[in-house]
Amino acid sequence: MAPIPKMMKAVQIEKTGGVEVLQYKDCPVPSPKDDEVLIKNEYLGVNYIDTYFRTGLYPNPKPMILGREGSGSIAALGAAVPASLAFANGDQVVYMGTSAYAEYAACPAGKVLKIPKGVSSSDACAALLQGLTALTLVEEAHMVQSGDWILVLAVTGGVGGWLCQILKAKGAKTIGTVGSESKVDIAKEQGANVVVIDRPGQGDVLKTVKDCTNGQGVAAVFDGVGKDSFERSLECVARKGTVASFGNASGAVEPFLISKLSAKNAKVVRPTLFNYIFTREEFEHYSEALWAMMIDKKLNIRIHDIYPLQDVAKAHTDIESRKTMGKLLLKP
Known about the structure:
Elements: E1 7-13, E2 23-28, E3 36-46, H1 48-55, E4 64-65, E5 69-77, E6 92-96, E7 104-108, E8 112-114, H2 121-141, E9 149-152, H3 158-170, E10 173-178, H4 184-189, E11 194-197, H5 205-212, E12 218-223, H6 230-236, E13 237-245, E14 267-269, H7 273-276, H8 280-295, E15 303-308, H9 312-320, E16 327-331
Parallel strand pairs: 9-10, 9-12, 10-11, 12-13, 13-14, 15-16
Antiparallel strand pairs: 1-2, 1-4, 3-5, 3-7, 3-16, 5-6, 6-8
């Protein structure tokens, strides 16, 4: 392997704000701690959570290198990486960690996975965070059953697209919302049974839910939109149903009276992926299920675009526009 350089290109922020705070600059290549793996990045995932750190919605010490996932090859192993993981220099891997927007990243070995045969590096990076989010939502946030009616907001977005496909594989029936007519066919291709254009004067989400469910409501709402849709999500859910609020695309959900839930004995959960894959066993369990679905061609990996790392501001602008369809990747 080529020697590891001392410096690398990375995207760092020193203050919160718009895309203007994203700095493409030279930074030191990190040295892996004893329990870490140093990875030479090939692809980097762009996720909405990255914009939360950039804007300050999620506080974090500064300066910081953004990014939560990537794929590439192992460049070095920390002294105490468990032999049971069977990692070696040069292995093709995918990971979830921090400081990924860079040519190299150091990641705890427990959050690194070998990419299985039959899965490309770009597909592994595109799938890992959003695919695992969708899979754990339908298994843990609300255990979806075959035949359930489910409402998925922003169904052609990153997590929404994965949810739609996984729900179809489980035999559920999906009502999906989209922001424009141009996304309707794509939503149907991904498995949505019913598609609603969620714009004033174009579609009535609550009416569609009632029509599809004989007035009962959906078994679960998977809501990554947040503030603008939360009250409606409570209206759409059935008695004893679940509203899984997992994102803040329109802003954080405002405080509400818990007594509102008693009208339907409804449940509200605010999950994060990392608490579902906290242990190595959980991480491997769900990732193996995801790889199997990908290899069996049950999932269509939709990549919206691959941007050079120095064009990160355009990638953030695009994902915040809510007009993208599929995963946004960066390439160092």
